[in-house]
């Protein structure tokens, strides 16, 4: 939980951002070295504050309705390298150091389906880690 003293230092940033009606903003995670787009998730004010304070990326889980620290159950953490805001202040771009895979399917990136001009879909990335191994399922 972010404390008030630390959150005050981010007031200008948080006031600038355009959160949606659910008080969330989309955040795109991109590999800081390869520039591969890894995933998109949502952040709220507390997730942004925690991420900036700790350097470990934290999102907001809409399904669980709580903060989601990337890698807390899978070990596939993201360390923040650079935090950017787009020109409209309604989307975030996080350059991260990704440990292992970013996608819950066990792939490096969540963007593994390529759509051709005729609408057909092709899988363009292999599963690198079994989701059962990542999340301890049997």
What is the CATH class designation? Alpha Beta
Strand content: 25-35%
The count of strands amounts to 8
Strand order of the largest sheet: 2-1-6-5
Helix content: 10-25%
Mean pLDDT: 92
Low-confidence stretches: none
Task: Describe the global form.
Answer: globular
CATH architecture, by name, is Roll
Please tell me the total number of domains: 1
Radius of gyration: 16 Å
CATH superfamily, called what? Phosphoribosyl-AMP cyclohydrolase
Main beta sheet: 4 strands, mixed
Class derived from helix and strand content: alpha+beta
The CATH topology: Ubiquitin-like (UB roll)
Spatial separation of the terminal alpha carbons: 32 Å
Number of helices: 4
Order of helices and strands: HHEEHEEEEEEH
Secondary structure layout:
Elements: H1 4-8, H2 11-16, E1 25-31, E2 37-43, H3 45-54, E3 58-61, E4 66-69, E5 78-85, E6 92-98, E7 113-115, E8 121-123, H4 131-135
């Amino acid at each position: 939980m972010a404390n008030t003293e630390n959150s005050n230092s981010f007031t200008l940033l948080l006031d600038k951002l355009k959160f949606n009606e659910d008080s969330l903003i989309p955040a795109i995670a991109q590999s800081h070295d390869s520039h591969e787009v890894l995933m998109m998730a949502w952040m709220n004010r507390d997730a942004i504050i925690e991420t900036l304070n700790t350097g470990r990326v934290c999102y907001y889980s809409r399904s669980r309705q709580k903060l989601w620290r990337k890698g807390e159950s899978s070990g596939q953490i993201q360390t923040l390298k650079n935090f950017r805001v787009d020109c409209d202040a309604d989307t975030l771009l996080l350059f991260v150091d990704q440990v292992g895979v970013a996608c819950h399917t066990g792939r490096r990136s969540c963007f593994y389906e390529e759509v051709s001009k005729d609408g057909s879909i092709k899988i363009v990335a292999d599963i690198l880690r079994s989701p059962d191994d990542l999340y301890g399922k049997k």
